[in-house]
Request: fold
Amino acid sequence: MKELSLHILDIVENSINAGATEVEIQIVEDNKQNLMTITIIDNGKGMNEKMLEKVLDPFFTTRTTRKVGLGLPLFAQAAKMAGGDLKITSKIGLGTKVEATFIKNHIDLQPLGNMAETLVTLCALYPNVDFIYKHLVDDRSFVFDTKEIKERLKDVPINNPLVLGFIKDYVESNLKSILEV
Amino acid sequence: MGVIKSIEELEKIREQAKDLINLRKDNENKTRIVVGMGTCGISAGARQVLLAILDEIKKRNLTDVIVTETGCIGLCKFEPLIDVIKPGQPKVTYVNLDPDKARQIVAKHIVNNQIIEEWVIPNI
Reply:
């Protein structure tokens, strides 16, 4: 994986494979504390403790639990390389929360990459799942919620090509405004 | 810095989009494009391939194409890969793609019905 937004796409695919109907992606960048936190919370079927122990082991998971695969170990590696860590909490029937931390100015921190493209990909492939994206940079923030988009769209589907084009521009321009000051 | 888009602009998009058919509204007479979006696919560049396909569909105003995804199918070293399934025809699997190849597949295979044999992997 070349950028964190691809890891995020991959982890959200796990959530959807676990039957999630709503996935929240939070990115918090705190320049004072030199810390970035990426959190993915879903309302999928969750995992028991035995499974939780296994999901970070790439060799155990590759075939038998194929839906989990290498995604989480790679994301954990990206966090650890940048001086951070990855934590997973999960409850059967309630959902799963994946939280990765990164030292912001660490030399091995992967670039965040294009979150607009990750969100467009998710909206195109999973029009029936709701996504909430919250991005905080110090005291500035941007929130994208597909429920709000769908409400405004009424009968037009979110994966309509024109709508996807709007989402890309909308997320890109708003992110730019909180990232560059 | 460019202009920050407002969510209010969605109203205009909605008006334009109303006439266009749902990309995913399934039926048997539609062509399906299945993009491999497992960890292997994503790390090899599947997101860019998917976005190129969606962009080409939008530009050409194709309404009879459905784009979906699949997880890892065990051909990780051939990623990014896609299946093209035209109604009444066998599945064609294209491998080692990039956005440019993906656009050509839409133009040649989806629109003009010409399979690009050199990118096809046989017998899966």
Remarks:
- The mean pLDDT of chain A is 92.
- The first strand of chain A starts at residue 22 and ends at 30.
- The CA atoms of residues 14 and 67 of chain A lie 7 Å apart.
- The interface with chain B takes residues 1-2, 6, 9-10, 13, 17, 66-67, 69-71, 74, 117-118, 120-121, 124-125, 127, 148-149, 152-157, 159-166, 169-170, 173-174, 176-177, 180 of chain A (CB under 8 Å).
